[in-house]
Amino acid sequence: MVYIQNDLIQSNVPSAWYSSLENFIVKGKNAEIWDSEGNRYLDYVGGYAVLNTGHLHPRVIDRVKKQLENFSHSCFAFAPHENAVRLSEELNKRYPIDSKTKTFMVNSGAEAVENAVKIARYFTNKKAILSFKGGFHGRTYLAMGLTGKDKPYKEGFGPFPEFVKHAVYPYSYRDISDEDALMSVKNILNSVLDPSDTAAIVIEVELGEGGYIPASNYFLSQLRDICDKHNILLIFDEVQTGYGRTGNMFGSETVGVKPDIVTLAKGIAGGFPLAAVLGKAEIMDSIHEAGIGSTFGASPVSCAAALGVIDAFDNENILTNAKKQAETMNTVLSNLMNDFDCIGDVRGYGPMIGVEIVSDKESKNPDKEKTQQIISNCKENGLLLVSCGEFGNVIRFMGPLTTPIKQVEEALGIFSESLI
Hints:
single chain, 420 residues, alpha/beta, Aspartate Aminotransferase, domain 1, 2 domains, 4-stranded mixed sheet, 14 helices, 39% helix, globular
């Protein structure tokens, strides 16, 4: 069966779009999946941090089924539907920006980032954008330009927009301090970009693909001050940190800093494609009629699913469980770091934790080969994980926030047994 599946994939799908799992997935339930060979796994990939509420959450599926009894699609720009408006209302109430906000729905994180930058440049009538090395913002051209990790995302696809420049992101384990990163930002604004022509600074609250590296309150507060001083908009890319991943509903709450615009995707719709650009009302309202839009954005079905996700967060103590997960994970992983020379660092907000694998603690040399061996060992023992980081040597934990603590402990046990 494995060979048949591999042949089908190789014959019909571009080789660049490879799969980590050899067999087709056939069933999912919360934090567990089963493949076509009957193998059961704890899913700590979660569709790449999408399934914050797990596979097939009952509240999500119930909302979707009810929506499908009525209609499946309506382009919101032509025929509005209540799901999109109710969801926008919920997001506007919940995201921590002091002034009135408005929300625009699209399909994916990359599309959200593209629109956030598009809106920021229109509103400010400025051109330049500053983002960060290690950041990941998507695979469309502008999003790739913003992305600060070349391989594999940008290699061979350039040139990219010249109005985008990259500052250094704080990375204390690799001796890049907050002050180093702030100096990088200031140097670019002083000598490379003109602050009076810089529309926005785009940053992840915690790097995703870049290595699960959290930005501190101090660093982001200083960035906020820089933006205010030069009339630059601050855009938080919360595609991955949003919806409980950092232990709070939004990463902005975790770091205590408020942006002007935020992008949300991944976990907001329980596995259905949906993303959002939320920003201060005066910014969002500045665009001329039909200047933004999306055929499938604000899908009635995806918006129904997203309302089910909010219902789950409101009624099921998901954030409490996420914080308990983080406590359990940090305790176990910190102990393992003390016991294993190959674990150089354990870091992250809430249960959004990265484990950096090195050849040894003294040299801190990244060990991608060892990282992949640990991930392979975990898969053989029933735990799915993937790597990230500039050197491909950070193992990230992206399990559902609804995972029972017993299964969190099971996952950590498998990880412990898989270390080499």
